[in-house]
């Protein structure tokens, strides 16, 4: 088994090294299509901007190749620009800066990168509504007033991944408010985004003036009351990571319950369909990004229990994580495929938007976050425990 996992790691590293000169300074956004394994890039900015950078840092971490470090650092001007562009600021700052500036600081001790990471954490903290106790997920410009209004009181399950930036900033500075905001958002997510049966909403709306809770929505899932599999993955990984960073066992218990729900619904091949409550008559697109993300999260859960001497649980989550990882490897791994610029096929960015906009690649293509978490899960599977979250 260990050899298989080592082999996956080597193939991933080969792919990253091979594709680094092709990708250059660009930041992959999404693959071109089901059988078109080339990247499409955003015109200027997208929330996905640091996943490739995260892969470069992981590859640097395991190889020590200086050119990978240099390639990753070449994104710094873009990171500065993100912080200086108010309409680009949203809850995704955690993804964007944990996998770039924080990675740089953690791996190399670069103090400028630390400063950049702390500035990003401040920007994320500033999105917190202290009265409602939530981080406002999105920012909208003036071109669509109704949309702008609707996002004022919106939180999102994906934001669980962004709380480690705040917890890291707290560890670095001892400034209490970073931690307060992270915990406040985790608690509000637990209360409103997680349903009684431990499935999840994608987003939840509050009245931005009174902060009265209004409704849950699932924009990228099948329906508001369904369970978008990537959202469930964001929650499994996110709560496990917050448990690791705070030591609060309630978050680990929650991650376990979310996992139980996922295990009850996942197909026998252990690769998620894009929504765990998708009716049979709908096209059963896979979302390998949900698979890699969930696998990485279960390794964190395993590590959490291992550190507390709970060997049975540690082993249980390790086994499931590995089953999910190997399932991806066996059926969707592109690392050996000539010309493929990414690691995994068959990710679903957003099936509803694919249908609305008639863009097939939104339902089935490579995704940079699917790839990043595939790399993370693979490294966790062979015992790495130091990451950028
Ligand atoms: N964070 C957006 C997504 O998961 O598609």
Description:
With 389 residues, the chain is mainly α. The protein has a single domain (2-381), classed as Glycosyltransferase (Alpha/alpha barrel). The chain contains 15 helices and 7 strands. The strands form 3 sheets. A 3-stranded antiparallel β-sheet has the order 5-6-7, with no helix packed on it. A two-stranded antiparallel sheet has the order 1-2. A two-stranded antiparallel sheet has the order 3-4. The model has no long low-confidence stretch (mean pLDDT 97). Glycine (GLY) binds next to loops. Glycine binds at residues 158, 220, 230, 349.
Label this structure with key terms.
389 residues; mainly alpha; Glycosyltransferase; 3-stranded antiparallel β-sheet; two-stranded antiparallel sheet; 7 strands; 55% helix; binds glycine
What is the number of beta strands?
Answer: 7
Our count of helices gives: 15
Secondary-structure element pattern, one letter each? HEEHHHHHEEHEHHEEHHHHHH
Overall outline:
globular
- Strand numbers in spatial order across the main sheet: 5-6-7
Mean pLDDT: 97
Q: Remind me, CATH topology?
A: Glycosyltransferase
Helix content: 55-70%
Major pleated sheet: 3 strands, antiparallel
């Amino acid at each position: 088994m260990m050899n298989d996992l080592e082999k996956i790691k080597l193939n991933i590293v080969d792919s990253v090294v091979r594709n680094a000169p092709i990708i250059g300074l660009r930041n992959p956004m999404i693959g071109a299509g089901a059988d078109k394994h080339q990247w499409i890039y955003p015109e200027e900015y997208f929330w996905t901007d640091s996943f490739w950078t995260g892969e470069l840092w992981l590859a640097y971490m395991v190889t020590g190749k200086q050119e990978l470090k240099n390639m990753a650092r070449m994104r710094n001007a873009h990171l500065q620009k993100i912080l200086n562009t108010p309409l680009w600021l949203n809850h995704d700052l955690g993804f964007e800066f944990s996998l770039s500036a924080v990675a740089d600081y953690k791996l190399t001790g670069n103090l400028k990168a630390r400063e950049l990471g702390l500035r990003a954490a401040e920007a994320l903290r500033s999105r917190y509504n202290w009265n409602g106790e939530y981080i406002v997920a999105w920012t909208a410009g003036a071109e669509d007033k109704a949309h702008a209004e609707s996002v004022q009181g919106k939180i999102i399950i994906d934001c669980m991944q962004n709380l480690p930036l705040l917890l890291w900033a707290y560890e670095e500075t001892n400034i209490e408010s970073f931690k307060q905001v992270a915990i406040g958002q985790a608690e509000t997510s637990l209360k409103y985004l997680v349903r009684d049966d431990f499935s999840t909403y994608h987003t939840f709306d509050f009245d931005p003036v009174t902060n009265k809770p209004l409704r849950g929505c699932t924009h990228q899932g099948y329906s508001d009351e369904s369970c978008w599999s990537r959202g469930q993955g964001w929650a499994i990984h996110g709560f496990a990571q917050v448990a690791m960073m705070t030591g609060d066992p309630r978050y680990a218990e929650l991650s376990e319950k979310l996992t139980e729900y996922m295990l009850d619904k996942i197909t026998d091949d252990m690769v998620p369909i894009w929504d765990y409550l998708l009716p049979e008559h709908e096209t059963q697109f896979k979302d390998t990004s949900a698979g890699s993300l969930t696998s990485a999260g279960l390794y964190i859960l395993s590590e959490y229990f291992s550190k507390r001497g709970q060997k049975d649980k540690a082993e249980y989550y390790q086994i499931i994580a590995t089953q999910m990882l190997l399932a991806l490897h066996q059926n969707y791994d592109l690392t050996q495929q000539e010309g493929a610029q990414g690691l995994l096929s068959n990710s679903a960015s957003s099936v509803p938007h694919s249908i609305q906009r008639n863009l097939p690649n939104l339902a089935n293509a490579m995704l940079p976050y699917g790839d990043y978490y595939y790399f993370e899960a693979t490294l966790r599977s062979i015992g790495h425990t130091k990451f950028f979250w």
